[in-house]
Structures are given as C-alpha cells and as structure tokens.
Amino acid sequence: HMLMLPTHLTQLPTGHEQGECYAIDIGGTNFRVMYLKLADSKNQIHEKDVVEVSLPRDLLSGDGSRLFDFLAVTLRDFIAKHRQELSLHKPHASVQVNPQSLGTVDISATSDNISLPVVGFCFSFPVSQTSANSGILLDWTKGFTCSGVVGEDPVTLLHAALIRAGCPC
C-alpha cells in the first residue's frame, strides 16, 4: 500500500501557462537554482538557465537558518546575475548595488521597474502540506539533520532568509 499526503492542488497545468519564474530545487547534497521563461505556444520553454550548486557539508547539520540563508544568498546572486545580463540587452536597465551593505544586491529596485521575481520552491523532503504553498517538515532525510526546521514551514523559513538576504520575492 502507498503512503500519500494531500497536495492541496485543485487544478492541473493546462500547458498554456505563460510568464517567467525563478526556482530553487533542493533534495540532496546538491541543489539547483534556475530561471525559466515559458513561450506563448503550448508546452514550450522559451528560455532556461540552470545552475547546480554543491551544498557545503557543514550546512547539512547545525542551525537550519544557515542552510536557508545559503539558499537565499545563492538565489539572490543568481537573480542579480541574470538581471545584469538582461540589462546588457536593454537600455536603461540596471541592478542597484549598495556598497554599504557588504555586497547585498537589491534586485527589487531597477530603473525599468522590473517586478519582484516569482520563485518556485521544490523541497524534496517529507512535508505535510497545509496549502499549495505551505506545509510542515515532518522529518529530515538524505543526511540532513539541521535544527529548527522539523515541525516548521520550509516556505516561511525560505521567505525569512530571502528577506535577510535583501531578496524580497
């Protein structure tokens, strides 16, 4: 017999989705950050950029906020790099960097008013979902033992880390 938890999703994708998003995919000792832009035609990816990152071994244990801060900073830097590359192709676009903030990149304030990024989060650990975008980590697997995460909502922890990293999403 198969153990399953509800996903709280009420509708399957149609294949006509459009737009762009960034994503984090964590499920082991590596994780990926990515950018996807869906084409206007059905089931087509117009643009894709994926970077695989090795997690430092010391982040698999200890305080869980360190893990989520690492994810957030990596995503922040990926988005800033991506937007900087876009600005090379668009006049008047720029990424704002505050030198007083020790390299923190403000990706929310660009001269062409690029909106805050949409971020998807694939968290491949046992989570009891309470809605489509929230849930509670039931237990760590795959060698992770970070404290302060089991019994908490990984989406909330990532969101807090993104705010600390200067990357509101």
UniProtKB/TrEMBL annotation:
Annotated GO MF terms: ATP binding; D-glucose binding; fructokinase activity; glucokinase activity
Pfam families referenced in this protein's UniProt entry, alphabetically: Hexokinase_1
Residues of the Hexokinase N-terminal domain: 2-167
Catalytic activity entry: D-fructose + ATP = D-fructose 6-phosphate + ADP + H(+); a D-hexose + ATP = a D-hexose 6-phosphate + ADP + H(+)
UniProt pathway annotation: Carbohydrate degradation; glycolysis; D-glyceraldehyde 3-phosphate and glycerone phosphate from D-glucose: step 1/4; Carbohydrate metabolism; hexose metabolism
Keyword hit for Phosphoprotein: no
GO cellular component, as recorded: cytosol; mitochondrion
Coiled coil: none
InterPro entries with a match to the protein in the record: ATPase_NBD, Hexokinase, Hexokinase_N
Top enzyme class: transferase
Domain of life: Eukaryota
Keywords of the record: ATP-binding, Glycolysis, Kinase, Nucleotide-binding, Transferase
EC annotation from Swiss-Prot or TrEMBL: 2.7.1.-
Biological processes, Gene Ontology terms: glucose metabolic process; glycolytic process; intracellular glucose homeostasis
Family assignment from sequence similarity: Belongs to the hexokinase family.
Name this protein carries in UniProt: Phosphotransferase
Lineage: Eukaryota, Viridiplantae, Chlorophyta, core chlorophytes, Chlorophyceae
